[in-house]
Amino acid sequence: MTKQIEVVSDILQANDQLSLELKLLFDSKGIFVINFMGSPGAGKTSILEKLVQTIKSEVKMAVIEGDLYTSKDAQRIEAQGIPVTQINTCGGCHLDSSMIQQALTALALDDLDLLIIENVGNLVCPSSYDLGEDIKMVALSVTEGDDKPIKYPAMFQRAQLVILNKIDLLEYTNFSLDHALGDIKTINPALEVFNLSCRTGEGIIELAQYISSQIAAKRTRPQTTER
Ligand code: MG
Ligand code: ZN
């Protein structure tokens, strides 16, 4: 038993080390990086499509698409006319920093302001594997139920931003905004929450503005490598 636990902590430690190297690389290039997580079906790819449409004219961006087996999501993002790199985990339930390091070889990093990494759909282990990102963003759709934050607290503890997606469907569900927001505030009082609907467009502009302001803030911060 003990041995097994040590193996897992070694893997996490190796990932943390590589994540730090990636962070230094991203900082040196001035690229703002988002690790985008959420359950399968939470609407991550749809949110990305809308976000790309909204900011691609102002922000030089690329996407890394993590997927179990297919390139369906990558094709949807590619159709928006921005660079996309696909990682197939072949059943693996999360992305790690070595996968990101490999995927980066296909991207022109000198020409980027923003990199969004769509993680494998899973509310459990992706939050344990840092990918050199600036922020973790979680999509939670109201059709999944308001008990998700309290059932998967680590994901919400480690995130900076949560998107309450499919907000247009709220009245057709038992989802209680009070319960969900109450739990979220208890787990992580600093977490930013955006209500969003890909169907009506609610919240897309606000999300885009938030991300643009984060990109600008990163540019004016002294780089980690120069400290
Ligand atoms: Mg997707
Ligand atoms: Zn996993």
Which percent range describes the beta-strand content?
A: 15-25%
User: What is the typical, i.e. mean, pLDDT?
Assistant: 95
Q: Rg to the nearest angstrom?
A: 17 Å
Side-by-side strand order of the widest sheet: 3-2-4-1-5-6-7
CATH architecture: 3-Layer(aba) Sandwich
Give the N-terminus to C-terminus distance in angstroms.
42 Å
Major sheet description: 7 strands, parallel
Question: Which segments are poorly predicted (pLDDT under 50) over 5 or more consecutive residues?
Answer: none
Q: What is the H-and-E element order?
A: HEHEHEHEEHHEHEH
Describe the structure.
This protein is α/β, with parallel strands linked by helices and 227 residues long. It has one domain: P-loop containing nucleotide triphosphate hydrolases (Rossmann fold). The chain is 41% helix and 18% strand. The protein is built from eight helices and seven strands. A seven-stranded parallel beta sheet has the order 3-2-4-1-5-6-7, sandwiched between helices. Helix 2 (44-55) crosses helix 8. The longest helix has 28 residues, at 2-29. The protein binds magnesium ion and zinc ion. Zinc ion is lined by residues 93-94, 125.
Features:
single chain, 227 residues, alpha/beta, Rossmann fold, seven-stranded parallel sheet, 7 strands, binds magnesium ion, binds zinc ion
